[in-house]
Amino acid sequence: MESAVTEKHRMVDNIAISYTGIFDTEILSVLAKEIEGTLSPDDKVNKKVFKIFIELAQNIAFYSLEREANAEGNDTGVGTMIIRNFDDHYVFSTGNKTTMENIIPVMEKCDNINSMSREKLREYRRLQRNMPAGEKGGGNIGLIQVALTASNPLEYSLIKCPDGTYFYIVSVRIDKE
Amino acid sequence: MEDIHIEGVHEAFFTPTVNFEVATGHCEISGESYLEETSKFYARLIEWMKKYIAEVKGPLTFDFKLSYFNTSSSKCLVDILDVLKKYQNDGGKIEVNWYYDDTEEELEEVEDFILETGLDINKIPIEI
């Protein structure tokens, strides 16, 4: 069994769906339809991938350093999404530009989530859910949901770009039952 | 006060179907919940509940039949359950039914709503 990290070295293999560009509502809805309808013959697996997609795609739309105006002129994040299909699992990855300063707390959140048992993670989700939106720590809930939905750790990596910014990739494995 | 009827929409965002009836106190939220302005959407429902509790003072039966809700929506669902719990504590008659896709993960979600709010929720699995 290979982990998402070893597989990232061949990011171009086994691609089921990939997209790079603006993470605008209209485009997300097209990607969502693809995932919901055609990705896997198993609706339960499609639903899992879909749930993960919604949470991670929103993070790119909100937090990506690279931004563009959409058709309505609204400022929206730019990033990449790749779903790779293997015999017994999918690997869902998203990537976006960021700064070291902004991404350190996110990586810490991932480490924290990965260190928790499922029970602890559920408790953490309940706690986060009771926090008013926008309050410190309130943004964790999307990542917690991704880890709980996938039942697998969040794997991340950081690539330094020539312009001094970073490209942050988060991957999660979704087993096919 | 008036009933709430909202027809569900599945487009770029997903609006759930909502039917809240004053005469019977029967309230149903079904479909999918992934909204552009989540808090604003649910604030209207919570306002209706508070008005019903203050003016009608009748029983409330809630049927949650959501096949999908994002994390922002789940925060608002907790707010609805909190209002129901408070009403029950104050002597109101309530019943809450939660229909969920029959998977371990979705059962956990309902159980977490129960733990989080202290409400007695009937768990009703649906085959998918």
How would you describe this protein?
The complex is a heterodimer of chains A (177) and B (128). In chain A, strands 1, 2, 3, 4, 5 and 6 form a six-stranded antiparallel sheet that branches. The model of chain A has no long low-confidence stretch (mean pLDDT 89). Chain A contains six helices and six strands. Chain A has 177 residues and is α+β, with helices and mostly antiparallel strands. In chain A, 43% of the residues lie in helices and 27% in strands. Chain A has helices at 4-7, 25-38, 43-63, 100-114, 118-129, 141-150, and strands at residues 15-22, 67-69, 75-85, 89-98, 155-160, 166-175. Chain A has a domain at 4-98 and 152-175: Heat Shock Protein 90 (2-Layer Sandwich). Chain B is α/β, with parallel strands linked by helices and 128 residues long. Chain B has one domain (21-126). Chain B has three helices and eight strands, in the order E-E-E-E-E-H-E-H-E-H-E. In chain B, helix 1 runs parallel beside helix 2 (71-89). The radius of gyration of chain B is 14 Å and the shape is globular. The termini of chain B are far apart. The mean pLDDT of chain B is 96. Classes of the chains: A alpha+beta (177), B alpha/beta (128). Chain A binds chain B through residues 25-26, 28-29, 43-44, 47-48, 50-51, 54-55, 58, 122, 125-126, 129-130, 133, 141-142, 145, 148-149, 151, and chain B through 11-13, 34, 36, 39, 68, 70-72, 74-75, 78, 101, 103, 105, 108, 112, 115-116, 128.
